[in-house]
């Protein structure tokens, strides 16, 4: 509930809460009720005052900054900008300067930071760095494509369902995982994110309740919220999702779906065990919701780990994966596998969305799969990550840090003992991009956890900087 004298924002109105809040502050700024230089409440204080989530406040402040009414000052907060004629004239005369980097506060900022960051100094990165990938594999695939009988692929739209050879190769890949899906049950997409977006727009509608992992993927939270979906966070710990909480939420809210990562979960690195997978599928039957299984990091995991789609036979489960994490993010090739009745509607949405996906890149990925070179590349990555995890575990222990659960795959979920959002800006000023735990919370809940990328956190200097940052926050001389 809002506190103080602030009138409540109107839930269920045509204008989103963030827009209402931004409009409220914009009116006060334009009426000079808030003068230039006035400091606005912190994100958390504003959320408490108006009875909304921190995510809503961040979105409102973003809108005010975009309108030129607000500015963010590093480590100080948000301030009303001077928008008078004299200020505009000064700005016109001033030389252009690079904007100072700000620590990620939401999903969009995290993505922006990922594109701007130096991978060698980005422990919070969500992907493998470029020097872990295999450019010769890609170049070889493209050369074989140009010298093969694929001329038609290079001058046509291609099959709306996806390149036929790629879907055949994917069918074999899925069979290796225990998932039986013929080429006709597979739809290619412009990356795994596009596949998830097709599912949201085809099978969900505004007002639906959807179960999500918490912590989970910040970008997915943002996409679902943007679509008007109600999020039902399911706590995710060292043993996987809390299925007792999930059962209670399902009984109370009748969710339409559950979006989850069963293998090498982002950000914890945890994989669902067989008993948990069986119980989850029983709950889906009992409460009549479908499951979207995101296996984007599947190539970095052993094939024997249980996939929900294998146990379910693609009855209630739609399986999503892609190649950006292990092949190259420049090739936006992903796919989904689903029951025929679901696939038809998803294919129609893909047609309306962009006609088709790239037949050239899809055929190149097919060649990588057919020759077995992608399998060997993935095996080398798994071995290299295993070595990196051992080294990073030693570095973390040396600085007195502990893992919330044993790290696996690309990520570890580290507990540093202080609010990691407070660490983000000082570490960024020192040259280190981190991913605070609040970014992976569906409710933007602050805490002492952060995601560590096992391929970009090998520098001992980072761990020393992290230790120093934590000690500074804990020091009694630190300004709150």
Rg over C-alpha atoms, rounded to the nearest angstrom:
24 Å
Unreliable stretches covering 5 or more consecutive residues: 86-99
Q: What is the spatial order of strands in the main beta sheet? A: 3-10-9-8-7-4-5-6
Main sheet properties? 8 strands, mixed
Structure explained in plain terms:
There is one protein chain. With 480 residues, the protein is α/β, with parallel strands linked by helices. The protein is 43% helix and 13% strand. The chain has 17 helices and 14 strands. The strands form 3 sheets. Strands 3-10-9-8-7-4-5-6 form an 8-stranded mixed beta sheet, with helices on both faces. The longest helix is centred in the last third of the chain and has 26 residues, at 373-398. Mean pLDDT is 86; it is low at 86-99.
Keywords:
single chain, 480 residues, alpha/beta, eight-stranded mixed sheet, four-stranded antiparallel sheet, globular, PLP-dependent aminotransferase family protein, aminotransferase
What's the short version?
This protein has helices at 17-30, 43-50, 54-66, 85-93, 107-116, 135-146, 164-176, 192-203, 218-226, 243-253, 274-287, 308-312, 340-354, 359-370, 373-398, 420-429, 460-474, and strands spanning 70-73, 77-80, 186-189, 209-214, 230-237, 240-241, 257-260, 290-294, 317-322, 334-337, 402-403, 411-415, 435-436, 449-453.
Topology summary:
Layout: H1 17-30, H2 43-50, H3 54-66, E1 70-73, E2 77-80, H4 85-93, H5 107-116, H6 135-146, H7 164-176, E3 186-189, H8 192-203, E4 209-214, H9 218-226, E5 230-237, E6 240-241, H10 243-253, E7 257-260, H11 274-287, E8 290-294, H12 308-312, E9 317-322, E10 334-337, H13 340-354, H14 359-370, H15 373-398, E11 402-403, E12 411-415, H16 420-429, E13 435-436, E14 449-453, H17 460-474
Parallel strand pairs: 4-5, 4-7, 7-8, 8-9
Antiparallel strand pairs: 1-2, 3-10, 5-6, 9-10, 11-12, 12-14, 13-14
Helix pairs in contact: 1-3, 2-3, 6-14, 7-14, 8-13, 10-11, 16-17
